[in-house]
Amino acid sequence: MTLFDSIRRDNDRAPGGLRGLSRWLRHQLPTGLYARSLLIIILPMLILQTVLAAVFMERHWQMVTERMSSAVTRDIAAIIALIETYPDEADFRNIVQIARDKLAMTVSMEEGGELPAPRPKPFFSILDQILSDQIENQIAKPFWIDTVGDSRLVEIRIALDKGVLRIFARRNSAYASNTHIFLLWMVGTSLVLIVISTLFLRGQIRPILSLAKAAESFGKGQRPPEGFSPRGADEVRRAGLAFILMRERIERQMEQRTAMLTGVSHDLRTILTRFKLQLALAGDNPDLQGLNQDVDDMQTMLEGYMAFARGEAEEDVGQLRLTELFDKLKADFELHGKTLTYRLEGDDEVTVRPNAFTRLVTNLASNSRRYADRVEIEAKHSAKWLTIVIDDDGPGIPADYRDDVFKPFFRLDEARNLDASGTGLGLAIARDIARSHGGNVTLSDSPLGGLRATIRVPA
Fold it and tell me: How far is Cα 263 from Cα 292, in angstroms, rounded to an integer?
């Protein structure tokens, strides 16, 4: 068993939840190269910044705040010890002056006072938590603190025997208040790097998008975008140059094939014209009626082969009204004693190669008219797709042959009259035109009992 077989087996055995999570992630993540490239750059950067911020908060910010709060708490404990050692009023005034001059604290005593009611703890405050823990550990007396707000001071009240001691200390003495500068620098630098990466990626992705657009236009048989040339990284330039060379080779082969078939057609038409002239000079001979029919069939087949080989690639893109096309088909059906109805949902005008698209729909509708009495057409023109469904009540096509009928010169000889089945190129031309527009033609069972032909091309 190979490694790939083992991986595939493990994926098949994976729990349903993991497979569901994988599918959900695939649907949620962007599919474009530009967005995915940005994620490849931004996600690792965000993860790195998050880890750095978490480590910094845990190791540095909290540690520095803890040490500073511990120092402030020791100073408060020393003040309390001096007050309890020297309870006289004159000594208290000296203690207040020492605290103000040497410790940058404002101290006062409320004799007979009581501590205020406890305030709700802030959701996220390192200073409140650490300072409270330090006071409990070093002073071990009832206390009340106020660290909430943007004030530069922190108020601390401690219950003593003779009253409540009020202390106002500087916030920056107990708290690493400049830590946010690190976070601002980190976030700001990340934003600058993201902007630079976005601009750089946009310049790298633009040549790829131009190459994809040129390839898509060529695949639809349209003219390549003006000014297209290989640009970008070396690999993108090589891919663009390879595409240009491939396009030139294909166009050259198509021109050579068309020129060759045009020459063959001219020679054969000359011979057929000579046959017709000789048959006309022979007069009304009943024995030559079959030969006249054979010459006409050869002329029809020759025109079909030429149309299939030449295609409609040289036609420019333009506007086509679907209602006008369907009305012409409806009139043609009425001339042949058949019924055609249609229904259109969405915009009437479509951007296609008008002659080629008309031939696409006409080939499919004519095929239904030949073998059915009733045809229904339903067209839906949405923002992204144009879908045309043609249903008939004819004999249909067996499911095993629905792919084969699109092959050139293939005919259902057993189910169709060979003399009336044409050249076998109608459906091949139809699918070729649909694919040149970036879409496709498919066959399926019709609710009317016959065949359903579905045309789906980008709008």
Answer: 24
